[in-house]
Predict the 3D structure of the following.
Amino acid sequence: MVALTLSGMNIAGMDFAKMTDPALAGIALAKGIANLAILSGFITTVLFFALVFLIIWIVSVNRRKQNRMLYDLSMKAMETGQPLPEGMLQLFQKSKKKNNNPLRIGIILVAVAVGISLFLFVAGGDHRLKAAAVGLVPFFIGAGYILIHFISKKSKDKADE
């Protein structure tokens, strides 16, 4: 049998060693656990956003270093009169090129919308349908991008004929 002693324990401003009523001790312990749960939720949220920021910052720093190395290499090649290597210009253009394909953007937005809706439906509680409806915004934006892709594809096909 395990004996639990609460002497010296102070939760929610109440010293358990001085408590004689077990009901008050239980209430104080419940308050302490509730405060701890709120604090852990706050810490989890802050850590999540800090991690996202850290990942974005690391990618940005690495991209900046790579661009700086390419720039330094091209400057040295021009200073010495050497021709630039074959793939050097493609590396500069690759880092600046963005893929703005409407079909790709539309599919990503629809997938994000489905994920948001499913998550909010599961975690929505009493208002799950209202919460899941938030995902309709990126869904219809993504559907619009997909529609733009097919409309522009048809107009390109007619222009080529």
User: Anything to note?
Assistant: The longest strand covers residues 10-11.
